[in-house]
Design brief:
Length: 639
C-alpha cells in the first residue's frame, strides 16, 4: 500500500497536502487526496487514516452500554508516528497492534461537542490498531428506550444517530465525512432481539442473539448505524423491504409500496443504485429526525405512516442520499448543502417521475415558503451568515448551523442551474458527477470547478461567477430564485381568500370533497400555512369542527394546526397537542410548537410542564435544542 502513496505524491508533486489509500481486504480501494481541513475532527489524515474496521460488540440494555473492540486497518505516511481518533465519552480499556502487542495511547482533554482525541503511537511496522472500549450510558448518539417507549411494548429498543459528529460517542473513529472505510461487524444482543446495521442485514431473529454484518463499500463514520429491538421484516420488491415493530410492519409495507419504483426512477435518472438492497426501518416515535440515510437501511420516524402514502417524499429523499451524500459526500460540514441541497433536488425529481410535475411543484412551493421563513428567522439571529450555502462552522457545534438553508436554498440553486442550461444537459452533468466522484468527498469549491468545466465550458455556455457569489457566498435569497407554479395550490389560495372575506368554510369545501379526500395533505398544509396571523376563537372553532384538524392522522397537518392553536389559545386542541408532544420526538415538529409556546409567559409555563413529561422520550439531538430554548435546568441549578 505504501507504493500507492509514493506514486500518488510523485504524480502530484507536493501540491496536495494529503493522501489516503485503502488497506482493506474488501473490494473498493480509496485513493483520495484529503483536500481540506475538517475542523470537526481531531484526525490528521495526512499522517494516518483508517481504511477498514472490524467491530466486535456486545449490547447491554441493563447498563445501557456497548462494550466493543474496534480493530482498524490503517494507511499511513512514511514517517507517521501516531494516529488520532475522535472519541466522546468513551472509556478506553486497551489499545493493541495487529499482533496483540500493546500500543501507547493518550486520551486528550474533552471539549464540548468535539470530545477527546485518542492519540495512538505507531511503530514503523504497525499495520493495525485495535481499541477495546465501553460507551457511556449517556452517549449522545445512542437512544436506549424502555419497552413503554416502543409501539408494541414487548421489550427495550436501541438505535443510533451518528450524523453529524456523534459517531465518536459509540465508536472510536476518525469521525470526518472526508475519511471513508469499509467495515465488518459482529454484534451480540439479548436473545430474541434483532440487530440491524448500515450493512448487509438479517431478516430473522438469531437464536443466540449473535449477528454478523458487512459493509464492503467505503463509508464515512456519520453513516455508521445500529438498531436493536423486537423487529420484524417484510419484503416489498426484489431489492426493497421494511423493518418495523411487528404490529406496524404491515402498515409500513403498505405505506412504502412505491419504494421499489422509487429506486427504479432514481436509477433511470442518475445511474445504478450502488448499495445492493434498499431497506427502511420504521423506528419508535422518539427518533429525532424524519429520516436518516444510513446506507442499505434508511432510519425513519413513524410519523410518516399517515395511512395514505402522503408523506413518502421522505423516502424519496433518503433514497436519493444513496447518490448525493453516500456516494458523493460533503468534505466538511461547511459543505453540508452539497449533501442536502442535491438530495432535495433529486427527491423532487423522483417525486415528479412517480407522481407528476403538479405534485412535485406542490412540494417545491412548500419548500420555498419554509425557506423564506427560515431566512427571516436566521437573519435576525446572532448568525445571519448561516443563510449562506457555504457555512463557517469552525468552533461551533455543526448541528447548530444545519438548517433548512442547505436543503431549500441548495435545491433552488440547483433548479436555477437546471433552468439555465436545460434539463437534458443538467441531467447528463449530474449523472456524470455521481459516477465520476463516487466514493469521494467533495468541497463546494471543487463542485464549482466541475460545474465550470463539465457543465458550462463543455456545452459552450458562458460561466457566470456572479451566480456563485450570490447563491453560495451571500446571505439571503437572490432575486433570480425560480418560482414554482402549482395549480392545485392556486385553488387553495382562492378558498383562503374567500374564507378570509367571510364566506363560511362549509360553502367553500363540500362535505363530499372532504370524504373523498379531494385535497391531499399538502393542500391542507398549504391551507394551514396560509391562514391569517390573527384569527378569532370562533373562526378557529368553526374550522376545527368542520375539518377536524385537532385529530388529523397526518403529523404534518397536526403540527401546523397546533401552532395556530397555541397562537390563539384554542384550548380544545391542547389535550391532543400534549399527547403529540409527549409521544413524538421528531425535532422538526417540536421546535415550532415549543417555540410558539415560549412567546408568552403562560405559554412558557405550559411548555415546561409538557416538556417535563416528554423529555425522557426525546433523543439528545432534540433535548440539546429544546433545553436551550426552554432554559431547562438553569433555574434548578441557580436556585
Ligand atoms: N441527513 C438528514 C438528517 C440529518 C441532517 C441528521 C443533519 C443530522 C444532521 C436526512 O437526510 C434528512 O434530511 N432528514 C429530513 C427529512 C427530509 C425529507 C427533509 C428530516 O429528518 O426531517
Ligand atoms: Zn437529507
Amino acid at each position: 500500500m505504501q507504493k500507492y502513496y509514493k506514486r500518488y505524491l510523485l504524480a502530484l508533486g507536493a501540491s496536495f497536502m494529503l493522501y489516503a489509500c485503502s488497506t482493506s481486504q474488501n473490494e473498493t480501494e480509496i485513493q483520495e487526496p484529503m483536500k481540506v481541513v475538517d475542523h470537526h475532527s481531531y484526525a490528521k489524515p495526512e499522517e494516518a487514516v483508517i481504511t477498514h474496521m472490524d467491530w466486535d460488540a456486545s449490547v447491554d440494555f441493563d447498563t445501557k452500554t456497548i462494550g466493543a473492540t474496534a480493530s482498524f486497518g490503517i494507511s499511513k505516511s512514511e514517517n507517521a508516528s501516531e494516529i488520532i481518533f475522535d472519541t466522546n465519552g468513551l472509556s478506553i480499556q486497551e489499545v493493541k497492534d495487529g499482533n496483540g502487542q500493546p500500543l501507547t495511547f493518550e486520551l486528550g482533554e474533552a471539549k464540548p461537542f468535539m470530545g477527546s482525541p485518542l492519540m495512538v503511537k505507531l511503530e514503523p511496522e504497525t499495520q493495525k490498531v485495535s481499541i477495546k472500549y465501553t460507551t457511556s450510558p449517556d452517549a449522545e448518539a445512542l437512544q436506549w428506550l424502555n419497552s413503554k417507549q416502543t409501539a408494541d411494548e414487548k421489550g427495550p429498543f436501541l438505535f443510533t444517530q451518528s450524523e453529524a459528529i456523534l459517531a465518536r460517542s459509540w465508536v472510536p473513529v476518525q469521525d470526518s465525512p472526508g475519511i471513508r472505510f469499509t467495515y465488518n461487524a459482529h454484534v451480540t444482543v439479548p436473545k430474541g432481539m434483532l440487530a440491524l446495521m448500515s450493512a448487509t442485514n438479517p431478516t430473522e431473529v438469531a437464536e443466540d442473539g449473535s449477528y454478523s454484518f458487512t459493509m464492503n463499500k467505503p463509508i464515512p463514520a456519520y453513516l455508521l448505524a445500529l438498531a436493536v429491538g423486537d423487529i420484524a421484516y417484510q419484503q416489498i420488491g426484489s431489492r426493497t423491504g421494511v423493518y418495523a415493530e411487528p404490529s406496524i410492519v404491515k402498515a409500513a409495507a403498505y405505506e412504502f409500496e412505491d419504494m421499489q419504483h422509487m429506486v427504479e426512477a432514481a436509477e433511470e435518472l442518475y445511474g445504478p443504485y450502488q448499495w445492493g438492497v434498499y431497506d427502511l426501518i420504521v423506528l419508535p416515535p422518539s427518533f429525532p429526525f424524519g429520516g436518516m440515510e444510513n446506507p442499505r437501511l434508511t432510519f425513519a420516524t413513524p410519523t410518516i405512516l399517515a395511512g395514505d402514502r402522503s408523506l413518502v417524499s421522505l423516502v424519496a429523499h433518503e433514497l436519493a442520499h444513496s447518490w448525493s451524500g453516500n456516494l458523493v459526500t460533503n468534505a466538511t460540514w461547511d459543505d453540508f448543502w452539497l449533501n442536502e441541497g442535491f438530495t432535495v433536488y433529486f427527491e423532487q425529481r423522483i417525486m415528479e417521475a412517480l407522481y407528476g410535475r403538479d405534485y412535485s411543484e406542490m412540494l417545491a412551493t412548500l419548500n420555498l415558503q419554509g425557506l423564506k421563513k427560515e431566512i427571516k428567522s436566521i437573519s435576525e439571529s446572532e448568525h445571519p451568515e448561516d443563510t449562506e450555502l457555504k457555512l463557517h462552522l469552525e468552533g461551533r457545534n455543526p448541528d447548530d448551523g444545519m438548517t433548512n438553508i442547505a436543503y431549500d436554498k441548495g435545491y433552488y440553486f440547483l433548479r436555477l442551474l437546471e433552468e439555465k442550461v436545460g434539463r437534458e444537459k443538467f441531467d447528463t452533468f449530474l449523472k456524470d458527477y455521481f459516477t465520476s466522484n463516487a466514493f469521494h468527498s467533495m468541497t463546494t469549491e471543487e463542485f464549482i470547478e466541475q460545474l465550470n468545466t463539465r457543465l458550462f465550458e463543455k456545452n459552450g455556455i458562458a460561466i457566470d461567477e456572479q451566480l456563485y457569489k450570490d447563491w453560495i457566498y451571500s446571505e439571503g435569497l437572490p432575486a433570480n430564485c425560480p418560482q414554482p407554479v402549482s395549480d392545485r395550490f392556486a385553488k387553495v389560495d382562492e378558498v383562503l381568500k374567500k374564507w378570509e372575506s367571510g364566506t363560511p368554510i362549509q360553502e367553500l369545501i363540500s362535505p363530499e370533497d372532504i370524504i373523498t379526500k379531494k385535497w391531499s395533505s399538502h393542500e391542507w398544509l398549504h391551507f394551514l400555512h396560509g391562514l391569517p396571523e390573527s384569527m378569532t376563537l370562533e373562526q378557529m372553532t368553526a374550522l376545527d369542527e368542520y375539518l377536524n384538524f385537532t385529530y388529523s392522522g397526518n403529523s404534518e397537518v397536526l403540527d401546523a394546526w397546533f401552532v395556530h392553536a397555541i397562537k390563539h389559545q384554542y384550548t380544545p386542541a391542547y389535550k391532543n397537542m400534549e399527547n403529540f408532544l409527549v409521544h413524538t420526538g421528531r425535532r422538526k415538529f417540536l421546535t415550532p410548537l415549543y417555540g410558539e409556546m415560549v412567546k408568552t409567559e403562560a405559554g412558557k409555563q405550559m411548555a415546561k410542564d409538557i416538556y417535563a413529561k416528554a423529555r425522557p422520550n426525546y433523543h439528545y439531538v432534540a433535548t440539546s435544542t429544546l433545553d436551550a430554548m426552554l432554559d431547562w435546568g438553569k433555574e434548578e441549578t441557580s436556585m
